[in-house]
């Protein structure tokens, strides 16, 4: 008789749960690992399920990271995208590759568009408006030089009028 406790979440059940999750949305291996572990699957079961999912190409962190950056790159900067991908359990080389596809010109274009779209929010003196706009774009994860360039373009017309 074995001293090991029975698997609270056997392989078949873990496999079905993983497929059900993936049928609803894409997940990284890190996210699936966390979800299966929380359900009570053993490390061995989790590893077997993830290995099979990767072999069947149902989970691919590199594709996930590229799609994530592509879908959110218009509203978030590279710094924020990196942070969110790390939080989702994507490995650093994959994050570097996916976020590396965002060049500074693309980020500047996105930051200018965001600043123009949200400009109505910033009331007050021009200096106060620039400060609020800077903070807004920085919270969205745009690097400082991109934010400064976006603010120059966004507030250039106001400065010409004065």
TrEMBL record:
A Pfam family hit: RecX_HTH1
Alphabetically sorted, this entry's keywords are: Cytoplasm
Q: Which domain of life is it from?
A: Bacteria
Task: Show the GO cellular component annotation of the record.
Answer: cytoplasm
What are the BP-aspect GO terms?
A: regulation of DNA repair
Limits of the RecX first three-helical domain: 14-53
Similarity annotation = Belongs to the RecX family.
Its biological purpose: Modulates RecA activity.
- Protein name per its UniProtKB record: Regulatory protein RecX
What gene, per UniProt, encodes this protein? recX
């Amino acid at each position: 008789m074995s001293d090991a406790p029975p698997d609270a979440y056997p392989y078949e059940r873990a496999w079905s749960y993983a497929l059900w999750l993936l049928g609803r949305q894409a997940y990284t291996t890190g996210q699936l690992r966390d979800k299966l572990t929380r359900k009570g699957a053993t490390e061995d079961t989790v590893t077997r399920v993830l290995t099979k999912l990767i072999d069947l190409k149902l989970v691919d962190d590199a594709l996930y990271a590229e799609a994530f950056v592509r879908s959110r790159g218009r509203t978030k900067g590279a710094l924020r995208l990196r942070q969110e991908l790390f939080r989702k359990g994507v490995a650093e080389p994959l994050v570097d590759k996916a976020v590396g596809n965002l060049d500074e010109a693309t980020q500047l274009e996105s930051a200018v568009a965001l600043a123009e779209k949200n400009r109505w929010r910033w009331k007050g003196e021009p200096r106060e408006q620039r400060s609020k706009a800077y903070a807004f774009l920085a919270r969205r994860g745009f690097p400082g030089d991109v934010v400064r360039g976006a603010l120059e373009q966004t507030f250039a017309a106001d400065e010409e009028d004065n």
